[in-house]
Amino acid sequence: MSTVSVRDVTVAFESVQVFDGLSLDIDEGEFIVLLGPSGCGKSTLLNAIAGLLDVADGQIWINGKNVTWEEPKDRGIAMVFQSYALYPRMSVRENMSFGLKMAKTPRAEIEKRVTKAAELLQITPLLDRRPDQLSGGQRQRVAIGRALVRDAAVFLFDEPLSNLDAKLRNELRVEIKRLHARLGKTTMVYVTHDQIEAMTLADRIVVMREQKIQQIGTPDEIYHRPANLFVAGFVGSPQMNFIKGRLENTGEGLSFLAGDRRLSLSAYPFATAPSPGQEVVLGVRPEHLEIASKGIWQGFKVDIVEPMGADTIIWCSDPIGSVQVRTTGSRRAAPGESLTLHIDPTQVSLFSAETGERL
Ligand SMILES: Nc1ncnc2c1ncn2[C@@H]1O[C@H](COP(=O)(O)OP(=O)(O)OP(=O)(O)O)[C@@H](O)[C@H]1O
């Protein structure tokens, strides 16, 4: 059953139309991440689900109920924003209780929920402190706790970790994942432009660009079978290598050709019927360019070597374009050295040069 259903939604800001009939179904208990560059419409979509802005057309359903015209507080959702927005003069306990008090929840029930949320987030020892006596990470935990006590079926997060330093962000990311697992059936919709957060947290990622959904898929699908050149280039660091070329029928069946480089595509799982002569872009992840002792892709010249600890990134140049190779941390190479690369054709992605769509 879908917990959140966005049906053919259009949003307009005065003269600017943001979505034109956007639809998305989110299942009960799913962790959905909305991922995309600044301005792609992630927050607008989240705010439309939350009821913080009106839709011009279409419907929003939450828990089997049409909530398109319901107030945010009546939608069965809880939100966590980038800025914690805690009340500075109230203790953590009071901050977490405030919304429930306003809703006239009985005192014993408030106490029970705050105790449980504090335990889940490991902030019980902080309950009597004020926000200015907390670190950034602790404040964001309190903000999550304040959402948690609402016992909502759907949690909406808008870049909740982007104000934190890298170490805290990693810690809290793991906490959020653990929280989702513990809560079981709670649906989470999480906005970020950080692909690591998206890959590690999501059951499914929704990749957006210019207010349109580009692809919806598991992190594995998004990473290994990107639907188009945009998704392929946006997800993955270092970025996927792109090599321009064309499809040709050779003695080995259909092949990719770029300059005098050739790759047999007999094992490539084409999603659409390929046409020989077609201009294409070959996409290959840096970790799928293997340094080999022999092979047909010889003579790639090493430009720069970046030792990263766990792995090494080697930048190579070639008449067909420059590529980045990800190899083991202990591998070294000298600038000017010549490398032979092996590519497994089942690990590559092919895109139409004309449309950018996956072939
Ligand atoms: N109040 C508004 N009035 C006019 N245009 C708006 C308004 N809010 C958002 N937009 C436009 O809608 C588009 C989507 O914005 P949105 O904030 O949803 O993007 P985003 O992906 O969340 O970006 P960011 O990561 O920078 O927050 C942008 O082109 C933005 O300029």
UniProtKB/TrEMBL annotation:
Gene Ontology MF annotations: ATP binding
Domain of life: Bacteria
UniProt entry keywords in alphabetical sequence: ATP-binding, Nucleotide-binding, Transport
Residues of the ABC transporter domain: 4-235
SUPFAM superfamilies: MOP-like, P-loop containing nucleoside triphosphate hydrolases
InterPro entries, alphabetized: AAA+_ATPase, ABC_transporter-like_ATP-bd, ABC_transporter-like_CS, ABC_transpr_MalK-like, ABC_transpr_MalK/UgpC-like, Mo/tungstate-bd_C_term_dom, NA-bd_OB-fold, OB_MalK-like
UniProt entry tagged with the keyword DNA-binding: no
Family: Belongs to the ABC transporter superfamily.
NCBIfam families linked: PRK11650.1
UniProt protein name: Sn-glycerol-3-phosphate ABC transporter ATP-binding protein UgpC
Organism name: Microvirga terrae
Upper classification of the organism: Bacteria, Pseudomonadati, Pseudomonadota, Alphaproteobacteria, Hyphomicrobiales
Gene behind this protein: ugpC
